[in-house]
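ok here's NUDIX family NTP pyrophosphohydrolase:
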Amino acid sequence: MPVTSAGVLLYRRAPQFEVLVAHMGGPFWARKQEHAWSIPKGELDADEEPRAAALREFAEELGLPAPEVDYADLGTVRYASGKLLHVFAGEATDFELDGFAPGTFELEWPPRSGRTAEFPEVDDVRWAGLAEARTLLVKGQLGALDALERHLATSA
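and the structure:
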């Protein structure tokens, strides 16, 4: 069974159309920009509903609660690796990044050293225009942007 995650894709329409993206933390992503960003997301716990997992992971990764807005279920996108990501989109025009305080994770670093180090799950977060987001997001999540565009076109 493939690994399943859930995430929140926030967007706003003003001053221009933008989505919220987060730069992945840790040494692997430290010097990368292109395709090194993600929507806030994480793996589902056993028997956890995807929407609940998405909201929980948003808060864990950014240290900020997900805004209380209506969330549209955009469905699931599949990474080339087979991993599944269930995406929920919400319009959050007034959502501010003040108080950003990312969660952390431990990793053996350097590899095979026997030492562990603590790293932020996310080391930067920002609003990005759609074209920029397509170059920043990991390739497996680009389908989430397509799903958002389809959703907004049909709900207009």
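+1. The longest strand covers residues 4-12.
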